[in-house]
Known about the structure:
This protein is of the alpha+beta class and 251 residues long. It folds into two domains: 3-120 and 241-250, Aminopeptidase, CATH 3.40.630.80; 128-233, Aminopeptidase. Helices cover 24% and strands 37% of the residues. The protein has six helices and twelve strands. It has helices at residues 10-24, 31-35, 80-91, 109-112, 196-210, 224-232; strands at 3-8, 39-46, 49-57, 66-72, 95-99, 113-125, 136-140, 158-162, 165-173, 180-187, 214-220, 235-246. Strand 4, helix 3 and strand 5 (95-99) form a beta-alpha-beta unit.
Amino acid sequence: MTLHVEKVGLEAILPLRALFLKEANCQIRYNAVHERGWSDSYLISLDGRTAGYGSIKGREIPDRDTVFEFFVMPNFREDSKEIFRGLLLAARPKFIDCQSNTPVFPSLIEDFAHGIHADVVLFADDHVTDLAVRGAVARVRHENDRIFSHTAEPVGSHVIELNGEVVATGGFLTYYNPPFADLYMEVHAEFRRRGIGSFLVQELKRECYLAGHVPAARTGVENKASRATLAKAGLRECGMMLVGELDPQGL
């Protein structure tokens, strides 16, 4: 078996990445990293035939130390472990950042990394809800709206108004892989635990679909309140971001 790993431009892996995205069929958290030029791409061949690709991320060239995408064509998957080993030997990353609901990569990380743990929970839309909060109205944000101070999320394009006051804002980001978009929202601290967050997420889901996107979301593993809010609005936990340190002795 002759394995060849070559550092290439992003364009060289795009046909393979299209297959990866189709098979994954989910929101890819680090999709924009490629477009922003924050990744190095590696094309992998086995016995002279294209077998897959790997991607290493980091905003600056010296920081390219984390493998975050790895894909092998179905007809080469019995050799996935050796192919991944070849990528690690060629690129020499120090860390892994693996999305658990993607093909191939998650099944390999325990063989090469230690200290693996989840830091982010990923959500996909699951079912339609019919939530309501008495007196609350969901609408598009107006220029003259008085917006409360946000501490975690940006001010969104949509708001929840309650008794004439904006008590929550939210929106969705579209720089993820089509057709997926990422929902976000923040509720005024004085109005939390009233179902307003789930009501807003429900309405954002509808707006997202009307705009031609499929809603998805994410939150920190330790953020139990956010996880409950998303679940109540009809989203389900579909994966996690698994991070760990690669063991050079294991190669």
